[in-house]
TrEMBL record:
Chain ranges of the ABC transmembrane type-1 domain: 27-206
GO biological process, one term: glycine betaine transport
Protein name: ABC transporter permease
InterPro entries named in the record: ABC_transp_perm/SBD, MetI-like, MetI-like_sf
Keyword Transport on entry: yes
GO CC term (a single one): plasma membrane
Gene3D superfamilies: MetI-like
Membrane topology: Multi-pass membrane protein
Family recorded in the similarity comment: Belongs to the binding-protein-dependent transport system permease family.
Length: 266
């Protein structure tokens, strides 16, 4: 409790918000590392996911690649690439790219795969090319799931980017690694708080973006199983309104009319 209060006092100190080691500079470094890694991973993962989802080829890569890359130890990879490439930004970016590819690949594949096959067949029937089907039908309808993969990748990278300070490079992780060996726990807790707050802010931003990408006339059915164990993904279907109600009871048949005969009076 004392360390937590000390961390809050450290964050409130104006001296920690100025200079090259100030919080704004470290925050910008952290965001820059995250942005570069996610951008490179998006070019690789989303492009490959769209290709696999549209063509149906190499779909086994979604299972093998996402599972294998997620099982790799991040810190071990960082040390390995640092020994190979030397201390610098390159090993950090490579490790974070490897970390970000699985959710981006799975999200892009699941987004395209979730589009109803009847909609795609209708697009082909009106003469659309494969590129037009991908860009005008599959990507717009699957965009919420694709953004969901991007959202997951950003959160994983922004939380793991603290290891950049292990080499050391920069970012909010410097407050943790630089002060942990000195047993100065107030900056350590403060760095952890800053990373947590940053992750929560980005989570809220991308959650809002994901909601905005849902096209009109489309609903997301939560809880549908995602293909190849990609988690609980959303399945996209067009809205359908009932055209009428049916009844099991048929209209009653009127009984046959009985004619009354009048007897002549005598």
């Amino acid at each position: 409790m004392n360390s937590f209060l000390g961390a809050l006092a450290w964050l409130a100190d104006p001296a920690n918000w100025a200079g090259d080691n100030g919080i704004p500079i470290r925050l910008l470094e952290h965001l820059a590392i995250t942005g570069i890694a996610v951008l490179i991973a998006a070019v690789i993962g989303i492009s490959l996911g769209l290709f696999i989802g549209h063509t149906g080829r190499l779909s086994f890569l979604v299972v093998s690649t996402t599972g294998a890359l997620r099982a790799l130890p991040t810190l071990g990879l960082l040390v390995l690439f640092a020994l190979w490439l030397g201390v610098g930004l390159a090993p950090v970016i490579i490790v974070l790219v490897i970390l970000a590819i699985p959710p981006l690949l799975a999200g892009a594949y699941a987004g395209v795969e979730s589009v109803d096959r009847g909609t795609i067949d209708a697009a082909r029937a009106v003469g659309m090319t494969e590129w037009q089907i991908l860009t005008r039908v599959e990507i717009p309808l699957g965009l919420p799931i694709i953004v969901g993969g991007l959202r997951s990748a950003v959160l994983q990278v922004v939380a793991t980017a603290t290891i950049a300070a292990y080499l050391p490079i920069g970012g909010l992780g410097r407050y943790i690694f630089d002060n942990l060996s000195l047993r100065r726990f107030e900056p350590v807790f403060a760095g952890a708080i800053l990373v947590t707050v940053l992750a929560l802010v980005l989570e809220g931003v991308f959650a809002g973006i994901q909601r905005l990408t849902v096209p009109k006339g489309v609903r997301i059915l939560r809880g549908s199983p995602a293909p190849y164990g990609a988690g609980r993904a959303a399945r996209i279907e067009p809205d359908a309104s009932p055209t009428g109600s049916s009844s099991d009871e048929s209209d009653p048949v009127p009984p046959p009319a009985h004619h009354m005969q009048q007897h002549p009076t005598q």
